[in-house]
Amino acid sequence: MPTLHANEHPLLGALQDAFGDLVDEGAVDIVTVEDDAEQDACEVQADEWTLFIEGWPVHNAWIALDSDPEGPEAFRTSLEAALGEGDIAALTGLNRTLNGDVTRALAESGDELSAALASMIDADVEDA
Predict the structure, then answer these.
(1) In this predicted structure, what is the pLDDT of residue 40?
(2) From 126's CA, which of 34, 54, 87, 118 has a CA 20 to 30 Å away?
(3) Which one is predicted more confidently, 69 or 38?
(4) What's this model's pTM, rounded to 2 decimal places?
(5) CA 85, 69, 31, 106: dihedral to nearest 10 degrees?
(6) Per-domain residue ranges for the chain?
(7) DSSP string, the chain
(8) Contact 75/112 with Cβ under 8 angstroms?
(9) 115, 109 Cβ separation under 8 angstroms
(10) Quick count: other Cβ atoms within 10 Å of Cβ 41?
């Protein structure tokens, strides 16, 4: 049984702070990863995407879409179609709170789609 609690684990608290409004709207769920031996991994789950995030400080993250993009040229448009403005705003806020650890972990994941999301989050910060 997962043991992460927002008042006991800073990652879960940061996720709840960033995604709280979306959780309240029923747009996303934040779940702990039950088979995580370190008890420091979570997923943010939406209808069309899942974000895996792990560690404190965050050292591993990736994004999965329910509909796979046809190729790297479609990554950005697929991400924009799956993630709404509120999702991007929450990710941007989380990344800001965690001093860039989210985009760093996404970019270093070895997954091109996750790296594309990191670029989108960084661009969102620059536009703000």
Answers:
(1) 83
(2) 54
(3) 69
(4) 0.88
(5) -80
(6) 10-127
(7) -----TTT-HHHHHHHHHHHHHHHHTSEEEEE-TT-TTS-EEEEEESSEEEEEETTTT-EEEEEESS--SSGGGHHHHHHHHS-HHHHHHHHHHHHHTTTHHHHHHHTSS-HHHHHHHHHHHHHHHH-
(8) yes
(9) yes
(10) 21
Residue type, 10: P
* Cα distance between residue 30 and residue 12, in whole Å: 8
CB 105 within 8 A of CB 58: yes
The reported pLDDT for the residue numbered 59 is 95
Return the axis-axis angle of helices 112-127 and 75-82, rounded to nearest 10°. Answer: 70
Give the count of beta carbons closer than 10 Å to the beta carbon of residue 16.
13
